[in-house]
UniProtKB/TrEMBL annotation, chain A:
Native organism taxonomy: Bacteria, Pseudomonadati, Pseudomonadota, Betaproteobacteria, Nitrosomonadales
Record domain FAD-binding PCMH-type: where: 1-173
Coiled coil (UniProt feature): none
Residues passing through the membrane, by range: none
InterPro entries in the record: FAD-bd_PCMH (IPR016166), FAD-bd_PCMH-like_sf (IPR036318), FAD-bd_PCMH_sub2 (IPR016169), FAD-linked_Oxase-like_C (IPR016164), Oxid_FAD_bind_N (IPR006094)
UniProt keyword annotation of Flavoprotein present: yes
The protein's name in its UniProt record: Glycolate oxidase FAD binding subunit
Keywords: FAD, Flavoprotein
Source organism superkingdom: Bacteria
Pfam families: FAD_binding_4
One Gene Ontology molecular-function label: FAD binding
TrEMBL record, chain B:
Organism (species): Nitrosomonas oligotropha
Source lineage: Bacteria, Pseudomonadati, Pseudomonadota, Betaproteobacteria, Nitrosomonadales
Signal peptide: none
GO molecular function, one term: FAD binding
InterPro entries assigned: FAD-bd_oxidored_4_C, FAD-bd_PCMH, FAD-bd_PCMH-like_sf, FAD-bd_PCMH_sub2, FAD-linked_Oxase-like_C, FAD-linked_OxidoTrans_Type4, Oxid_FAD_bind_N, Vanillyl_alc_oxidase_C-sub2
Co-factor requirement: FAD
FAD-binding PCMH-type domain ranges (all copies): 37-215
Name of the protein in its database record: Glycolate oxidase
Keyword terms, alphabetized: FAD, Flavoprotein, Oxidoreductase
Taxonomy, superkingdom: Bacteria
């Protein structure tokens, strides 16, 4: 039998009462992500039981599902109607859930062209740190009533509320997709990706790895064919497998056990001269850096900041430093104030995002 | 501190003409685009630099003086209505386009820059700023951020929140925050989303980095007439169901068609119960393919009359009627009352039928224009405020439409904001828990409640009252501006 909202509320209220941290968890596929949750003296709040699609009307371009719904199940249902989650979320395992996807706030290869998970969030139902059942946003595309609390949930790592339901905007799948592949150096690839992004071309994803630039074109057949002629290059066979490997980090670039940094920066930033190997996505706006142990975190963070962005120690944090880029004091003040309002007892995934919240 | 003391302090760091306090000087600031609500501010300040704004805020914070930010003053929900004991902070003089980076496809601009000016400045690079509220020749980008403005192209290209990267924000105590980044995401909570649409309640935006996107090679429009609203609604669903996201998809009902055709001669079919305008944009090949498919869907959906624009002049002519719907409403009726609900599209026929029934019940005509792609409905109730009791009936009618939007699973405002106008309807849309959380969010940024007090989120004790937007002929500012 499905866990009821009353039961979740009871758990939260008891935890608030006893100041016992809750570890909110979906499929556990992103347990590796973020600062480690304190195992001791904390309670696991398993959300996988609270699942199922609540409402899906393909012609409305909106799907509403419970947080424990498996991302894979959601995508199968969308696919049956020729639709998709346009932000192409990474799953990092078959058990990945919708709630975890939104809480982690991660988007995949299509992000630079289509938008991020937060761009597609239309509404949420959540329990705050007092167990209050709250609804924000809705199931419509345009809604400016009240502050945009629903989008605030994306990427908040469960520190502000326990997601119960999420409504997402969905989009039709492109009629066809094809991937071009061309050899060039990194500087040329950064230049090309950004030039093409400024032209009316149906580019839906880019990746630069090992001296090869991969460009995915998506859309109506005549548009894709015309762009293919304009851009040149070889057509990549099995391109779906390739993009899945980039999205899911199964591509050969992603080494097990090596610290992996994620630098989200201005896309036109020239090649970053940092020790380690890099793979680029999002027209150069996302740079994965695979390092040997003991690389200089300060230097990496300084480079990301200099390039207008931030650096996350995405996997294999061996030095115990903060996974997420430290915030300026003024920003941290606002973060703490928000945390205090949503979760006055500080029990929702404390420390997972920053030690202060 | 007295008004005069505050004026003196402000003048210690602002030029004399940047501090207004004589009634005749304050008068132009007494309302925004919603002229039914008027209030003279205590003082108006017109700073030119961020440094000056910091000092203004520090002074207001120290003296606990309310601050209301204002851009171009074209807003329609009274969000920039002044506070009687407050300072009205005009950002109109900060109108510099600081930099355009064509390769990175971004523009750094000050808040007073007009929406359209950004696209004009980006045009030489083949780029533009996508959100296009119909008032874009006048409205400012800072105001767009405050309201999360949309436009007729937002189903495909998104709202303001989807098209900005970074904000410089001053909190009420004068501290500067950089929210967002030159990157596509940033560390920590998504405060960029929270700031967008926050109606000047959380901070003062002093600089915005917007995304620019490539100008489509081509745009083409299909205009289809229907003898039944339901059929037009089904045609919209069929277009989406066929996997097409049109650049724009607009619907007008019969009374609107007649009203605009009389004034503009856009070539609309006067026998139609509804007209759909469906635009495709992109590469030449893409548009040709999409237009062919849209045409076929309109035919299958039972359109009685279908035209496709053959050139740019014809496309703009088809659009002209739709864009002029609001100015025209002001000509056919002494007054009109505008609503801004959003509904799930599948409920359109029900809601329009409900509005028609209410229209008969109240004996008041109502024009309906509809951003059909995203479900944003703009019913315009036509009335005459000089007829006793008509205004009150209009208010009641409008309130019932908003209730209907909420019941249909929608929202009371899709793009105009809550401001002063819809503050009472917030009580219908949200429960006490959500409203309390909104107040808490505000307190996280502005604990003393000095920024735009009394707007957007009602105090719980207020929740029984009603409010509405009324546009008097000749009283609405920018009455001839295309709207929505």
């Amino acid at each position: 039998m499905q866990t009821t909202i009353d039961q979740y509320q009871a758990v939260i209220r008891a935890a608030a009462e006893s100041k016992t941290p809750l570890r909110i968890r979906g499929g556990g596929t992103k347990d590796f992500y973020g600062n480690p949750a304190a195992e001791q003296n904390s309670t696991l709040l398993d959300m996988t039981d609270y699942n199922g699609i609540v409402d899906y009307e393909p012609t409305e371009l909106v799907i509403t599902a419970r947080a424990g719904t498996r991302l894979a199940d959601l995508e199968v249902e969308l696919d049956r109607h020729g639709q998709m989650l346009a932000f192409e979320p990474p799953h990092f395992g078959s058990a990945a859930t919708l709630g975890g996807c939104v809480a982690a706030g991660l988007s995949g290869p299509r992000r630079a062209a289509a938008g991020s998970v937060r761009d597609f969030v239309l509404g949420v139902r959540l329990l705050d740190g007092k167990g209050e059942d709250l609804h924000f946003g809705g199931q419509v595309m345009k809604n400016v009533a009240g502050y945009d609390v629903s989008r605030l949930m994306a990427g908040s790592m469960g520190t502000l509320g326990v997601l119960l339901e999420v409504s997402l905007k969905v989009l039709p799948k492109p009629a066809i997709e094809t991937t071009l592949c061309m050899a060039m150096d990194e500087a040329a690839a950064i230049e090309k990706m950004n030039q093409w992004a400024g032209k009316p071309l149906p580019v839906s994803a880019t990746c630069f790895a090992d001296g090869q630039l991969f460009v995915r074109l998506s859309g109506a057949e005549p548009a894709v064919r015309a762009a293919q002629v304009k851009l040149g290059g070889e057509t990549l066979v099995d391109d779906m497998v390739f993009w899945r490997s980039v999205r899911e980090h199964t591509h050969g670039f992603f080494q097990p056990d090596k610290p992996l940094w994620r630098l989200s920066i201005k896309s036109t930033t020239p090649s970053l001269l940092l020790a380690g190997r890099q793979l680029l996505e999002w027209n150069g706006g996302l740079r994965w850096l695979s390092t040997d142990d003991g690389e200089d975190a300060e230097a990496i963070r300084a480079a990301a900041k200099e390039a207008g962005g931030h650096a996350t120690l995405f996997r294999h944090n061996k030095s115990g430093i903060s996974v997420f880029h430290p915030l300026p004091s003024g920003m941290m003040k606002i973060h703490r104030a928000l945390k205090e309002k949503f979760d006055p007892s500080g029990i929702l995934n404390p420390g997972r995002l920053y030690s202060e919240i | 501190m007295s008004a005069q003391q505050l004026v003196n302090q402000l003048r210690s760091f602002l030029p004399p003409d940047a501090v207004l306090h004589e009634t005749e000087d304050l008068k132009p600031y007494e309302c925004d685009g919603l002229s039914a609500y008027r209030q003279l501010p205590m003082i108006v300040v017109l700073p030119q630099t961020e440094e000056q704004i910091v000092k203004i805020l520090q002074l207001c914070y120290a003296t606990q003086t309310p601050v209301v930010a204002r851009g171009a003053g074209t807003g329609l929900s009274g969000g920039a209505l002044p506070h009687a004991q407050g300072v009205l902070l005009s950002l109109a003089k900060l109108k510099q386009i600081i930099a355009i980076d064509p390769l990175a496809r971004t523009a750094r601009v000050q808040p007073g820059v007009r929406n359209l000016a950004i696209s004009e400045a980006a045009a030489p690079y083949g780029l533009y700023y996508a959100p296009d509220p119909s008032s874009q020749i006048a409205c400012s980008i800072g105001g767009n951020v405050a309201e999360n403005s949309g436009g007729v192209h937002c189903l495909k290209y998104g709202l303001t929140v989807h098209n900005i990267l970074k904000l410089r924000v001053l909190t009420i105590d004068g501290e500067c925050l950089e929210i967002g980044g030159d990157s596509l995401d940033s560390a920590g909570y998504d405060l960029l989303a929270l700031m967008t649409g926050s109606e000047g309640m959380l901070g003062i935006v002093t600089e915005i980095t917007v995304k620019l996107i490539p100008k489509p090679e081509k745009a083409q429009l299909v205009m289809a007439a229907f003898d039944d609203v339901q059929k037009a609604g089904s045609a919209v669903a069929s277009v989406i169901g066929a996997g097409i996201i049109p650049a724009g998809m607009e619907m007008m009902d019969k009374i609107t068609i007649h009203a605009v055709e009389e004034f503009l001669h856009a070539g609309y079919d006067l026998n139609a119960e509804a007209i759909l305008l469906c635009e495709s944009d992109g590469s030449t090949e893409e548009v040709a393919d999409e237009i062919r498919r849209i045409h076929a869907i309109m035919q299958q959906s039972g359109a009685t009359n279908i035209s496709t624009s053959n050139n740019e002049a014809e496309r703009l002519k088809f659009w002209a009627g739709r864009k002029a719907a609001f100015p025209v409403a002001g000509r056919v009726s002494p007054d009109y009352y505008c609503m801004d609900g959003t509904i799930p599209r599948k409920r359109l026929a029900d809601v329009l039928r409900g509005i028609e029934e209410l229209s008969q019940e109240y004996g008041l005509r109502c024009m309906n224009v509809f951003h059909a792609g995203d479900g944003n409905l703009h019913p315009l109730i036509l009335y005459d405020a000089n007829k006793p009791g008509e205004l009150e009936r209009t208010e009641e009618f409008g309130g019932k439409i908003l209730e209907m939007c909420i019941h249909a699973g929608g929202t009371i405002t899709g793009e105009h904001g809550v401001g002063m106008e819809k503050i009472n309807q917030m009580c219908s849309q949200f429960g006490a828990g959500e409203l309390a959380m909104f107040h808490a969010v505000k307190a996280a940024f502005d604990p003393a409640g000095l920024l735009n007090p009394g707007k957007a989120v009602p105090e719980l004790h207020r929740c029984a009252e009603m409010g509405a937007m009324h546009v008097h002929r000749g009283e609405q500012k920018f009455a001839e501006l295309p709207r929505f």
